Amino acid sequence: MKKYLRKNRACYLGAVVFVLISTVFAVVLQFFKGDVLDCALAGDGRTTLRYAALLIIFILGEVLFYYLYRRSGDRFSVGCLRLLKHDIFAAILRQDYVAYKARPQGEYIARYTNEADTIRARYFQMLPLFWEILLKIVFVSVALFLLDWRIALITLALLTTPLYIPKLIERRLQKATDEYLKSVEDALARVNDWLNGFEIIKNFSVERHILSRFDASNDLSMDKLLRDTALGAAAQLITTLISYLSYFVVLAAATWLVLAGEFTAGNFFVAIGMIDQLSYPLISLAEIIRQLIAIKPTCAAIERFVSRSDSGANLSGGEKKRICLARALLRDTDVLILDEPLANLDEGTAQKIEELILSISGKLLLVVSHQFSPEKLSRFDGVIYLGK
Fold first, then answer.
1. Does the reported pTM lie above 0.85?
2. Which end of the chain is more exposed for a tag (fewer CB within 10 A), N or C?
3. By CB neighbour count within 10 A (0-12 exposed, 13-18 middle, 19+ buried), where does 78 fall?
């Protein structure tokens, strides 16, 4: 997947920069909220209005740069998906006919549609979102330390606990996602086979039988999907419960600081706002990690599919033709038969191959071709034309 990130790095870096600026605006405006409250309680109307104006400016800045972040993130994920689908389709076309027929057609369709779109949703879209959440966590944490180091330590100690949950069930997450995608491949392969045999189905009136088999295949896929989503829901439930528990603990600590006279009303307001800014990102980060962990096997499988090379599966027709010719020439045989040696070659390469063929000596050379340059045919000992 690294090459897709590399080719779309401009949009990726743009998204990171925009979300960085948006996060700075979001964190700073939390302090302005506290200043507005403290000044209002103190009866300082002019200063209150000044802070309120700054608050509005920072809100507009946060919204604007967040919009730019979303646009850059979408361009990044769509750009990666475009290249991925190109590579998947190119990998299918590079296969020879025997290798192509060895797999059900539905499997190719599943890779091009379902698996590619799943990778976009669970990998490409998650990467900019990961930076959005991570930057917010970092900046809010720093802001909390600036506000009060005790509140910061309590908050980070409690709210980071949910991040470990996805790692604890990593294998189950990967297995559930892999099983679901495999069941979709199998279902699509069966559907494709049934549709290819539509005429036979109608001629023998076996619609009910085929529909029954489809229901069984479809039910299996949906059961796998439910298991995948159930694991995600369970992980998110635990994460949310821990986060809310942490929220009330921090709220109690901030209340104690107010009663002890160490916090103003504005400080309390800022602290609660910062906790809100931090709790959701931490819950989201746990979900992002879950998605990235679950999609790893699928990404690896797609990478193997589009980059296979021990068997020459990633070579074009012309490249395969030239390799076959080179192998034939390396074998020291008395008779050499070349069947369409110029097929799938560009004009320049075809002329070089023609000259190479005509330079062969000391062998009985039989060339079957309908593309050989007419002006060079006289250099053969004999030419036989076959036609209707």
1. no
2. C
3. middle
Ranges under pLDDT 70 in the chain = 98, 159-168, 170, 243, 283, 308-309, 311-320, 388
Q: Where do the structural domains in the chain lie, given as residue ranges? A: 2-307, 317-379
Q: Is 204 helix (H, G, I), strand (E, B) or coil?
A: coil
Rounded to an integer, what distance in angstroms lies between the CA atom of residue 315 and that of residue 73? 33
| 3-class secondary-structure state, position 331 | coil
DSSP 100: H
Rg, C-alpha atoms of the chain: 32
| Measured distance CA(287)–CA(299) in Å, rounded | 18
Q: Write down how long the chain is.
A: 388
Helices 207-259 and 149-159: crossing angle in degrees, nearest 10, is 160
CA–CA separation, 205 vs 224, rounded Å?
Answer: 31
Chain centroid, CA 287 distance in Å: 15
Structure tokens of 77?
A: 């994920």
Burial class (CB in 10 A: 0-12, 13-18, 19+), 30: buried
